[in-house]
Write a structure and sequence with these properties.
There is one protein chain. With 178 residues, the chain is mainly alpha-helical. The protein has a domain of 89 residues. The chain contains six helices and no strands. Helix 1 packs across helix 2, helix 2 runs antiparallel to helix 3 and helix 4 runs antiparallel to helix 5.
Amino acid sequence: PEDDPRNPAVIADNVGDNVGDIAGMGADLFESYVNSIIAAMAIGAMFAGMSGVMYPLLLSAVGIIASILGTFFVRVKEGGDPAKALRYGLGTTGLFMIVGTFFLTRWVFLGDLTLFYAVVSGVVSGILIGAATEFYTSGDYASVKEIAAASETGAATNILAGLGVGMKSTTIPVILVC
């Protein structure tokens, strides 16, 4: 049969799908990340010379180190909540990033902390946007329960409730980005 897992062609097709989807997405994310760094380096070169070129690269290194350190704080006890452990790891990673950025910025720009404040606002905004996303999409909170309750009366009320909650959910990210 066409979708029988014993068929070698089906296995090859599934492997191809996984490679294309997963590796393709990873390559896309990597490209976006590298393009952002290169753009920051070009802007930095115009305004701060070699320090401006090196800062985005060093900042990325601080982020990688902070992420590695943050993984050591993700622990789930027996019967514990994995989401809570991930939130704690995210918070500690953000804290490591902020502390590392402070020392990096002081070293590279000889005490001028202007870019440090920009990084702090980005880290804090990213964490808060993630929390807002979780609030509006997790079944543990009222927003999703409101949509589920609206679906009891029909498809139209379900769609309207979903649109309403979706529109409300953009408030926090828009405020934080602006």
